[in-house]
Amino acid sequence: MKILIDIGHPGHVHLFRNFVKVMQDKGHEFLFTCREKEFEIELLKAAGFNYVSFGKKYNSTTGKIWGLLKFDILEVIQGLKFKPDVLMSHGSPYAAHAAAILQKPHISLEDSGNWEQIKIYLPFTKAVLTPDVLFEDLGPKQVRYNSYHELAYLHPKYFESNATHHSILNIDEEKEYVVLRFVSWNASHDKGQTGFTSHEKEQIVNYLDSKYEVFISSESELPEKYEKFKIKIAPEDMHEVLSGATFFVGEGATMAAEAGVLGTPSIYVNSIRRAYNEDQEKYGLVYNFQNGKGVLEKIKELESLPNLKEAFRERLQKLLIDKIDLTAFMVWYVEHFPESQHTMKANPNYDLNFK
User: How far apart are CA 183 and CA 162, in angstroms?
Assistant: First the structure.
């Protein structure tokens, strides 16, 4: 089987990485397409995957409209060259539109519930795989499974810390550190949304800097006063660093969820609700805030807990017992598609075979 996967975010490389490696071992062939967006290409290179870059993405409204046409055409061209049997993505309109033109099925994964994108790709998509906690009802094409995207690559079956986080960061072994994440607010789903105010950022950074080594990951250029905190590591090392952090604080839903499934105390600050972050809060792994109010108090509360990391690792074990191995489920689903779609419709709990 030949499968073309379009990547729209660095996290999508992680999402598909283990699925692709398992499928490659079974003899299947893959090609990735992407744009130049914050480490996508570096991650694809690090994983050793074949890819084609379509160049820089567009941030303005006019640019995004032009980009939709341009990247659709480029995706079709790559499809004609590669001749895939299936196209896959995390909600990519380019992959969906190309699949329709090439008369091949498009299988999407979705966990953001961003209707601005969904309404563009859903009519051209055969199936949409979503966590069962996703708020949105996407209709008869939706297949719900009991897991999160982050468990496709951070499940203990696929990821184990090698305790090199301090050496990666070039800090003393006994030094505690925290990871912060600021988003750029340029994505279509970010319009009208909020996270930290400038004052709240400064307050949080100053407090944490007085007690820990602080490392900031940011989608956009950092103000000069924060430049000294900018994390400077290979993108493929981020999960090792997250696993060793005392806690994570940030506006990025994906990194908040990643910290959660690594057993690192996680604080998510964004007015956009994410179902998987809220589900993780039920396990006591992620704390969700609509804005920066109360975040510093939550940090101080976490600091007062005895054996903080050990307590969170115990909470994580409860989550892992409940959730399935998403990578194993994806392999079964794609290899047996479209029969797998009928199986899941007839028996919605069939995914529990992949615990």
Answer: 28
Q: What per-residue confidence (pLDDT) applies to 186?
A: 52
| Span 26-45, average pLDDT | 93
Residue 123 neighbours by CB under 8 Å, 6+ apart:
none
Strand ordering across the sheet containing 86-89: 51-56, 29-36, 2-6, 86-89, 106-109, 127-131, 142-145
Question: What is the widest separation between alpha-carbon atoms in the chain?
Answer: 59
For residue 302, the number of C-alpha atoms closer than 13 Å in the C-beta half-sphere is 25
pTM for the complete prediction?
0.88
What is the C-alpha to C-alpha distance for residues 69 and 135, in angstroms, rounded to an integer? 30
Interval 236-260: pLDDT, tens:
999 999 999 999 999 989 999 999 9
Residues whose CB falls within 8 Å of the CB of residue 301, separated by 6 or more in sequence, listed in order: none
Q: In what order do the strands lie in the sheet with 266-269?
A: 213-218, 177-182, 247-250, 266-269, 286-289
**What is the SS3 assignment for 112?**
coil
| pLDDT tens by residue, 84-139 | 999 999 999 999 999 999 999 999 999 988 888 899 999 999 999 999 999 899 99
Residues 6+ positions from 3 with CB-CB distance below 8 Å: 23, 28, 29, 30, 31, 84, 85, 86, 87, 88, 334
Q: Which two tokens mark 188?
A: 């279509």
